[in-house]
Amino acid sequence: MSDCLFCGIANHEIPSEIVYEDDKICVYKDIQPQAPVHVLMIPKKHIASLDDTTDEDQELLGYMMCKVKDIVKLMGITDGYRVVSNNGDDAQQTVKHLHLHILGKRKFTWPPG
C-alpha cells in the first residue's frame, strides 16, 4: 500500500533501524520505545489489523508468532518479555498496518495501560 508508513519501512523507502528481516516480516526499533528493548514486527504483506485477516493469513500469522522467540533471543532478552498488538482506535492503533510490539529488559506491571 503506497501511503502506509510501515509498508514504506518494509520496502526500504523510509529509513528505520531494522534488526531482522526476511521475505515475510520486517522487525525494527520503535522510535518511541516504552522499554529498554522495544521493536515492532510487521508482515511485509499489508494487513490493516487483526480484524482484516483472512483464512489465507493463518500461515503468516503463525510464522510471526513463532518468530518472536528468535527476535527476543537476538535482542538479548532473557528474563521475560511482552508481545502486544493494538487493534483499532480504542486500543491506540495509530498505524493501520498489523504489527506486534515486542518489549523487554524491564519489569512490567499488570494491568497494562
Biggest sheet strand order reads: 1-2-3-5-4
Q: Can you give the helix content as a percent range?
A: 10-25%
**Which ranges are low-confidence, i.e. pLDDT below 50, for 5 or more consecutive residues?**
none
Into how many domains do the coordinates divide? 1
Classify the beta-strand content into a percent band: 15-25%
**Coarse morphology:** globular
The level-1 CATH class: Alpha Beta
In the CATH hierarchy, what is the architecture at level 2?
A: 2-Layer Sandwich
Major sheet details = 5 strands, antiparallel
SSE order, as H and E? HEEEHEE
Structural class of the secondary elements? Answer: alpha+beta
CATH evolutionary superfamily:
HIT-like
List the total number of helices. 2
Q: In whole angstroms, how far apart are the ends?
A: 30 Å
Radius of gyration using CA atoms only: 14 Å
**What number is the mean pLDDT?**
95
CATH fold category name: HIT family, subunit A
Number of strands: 5
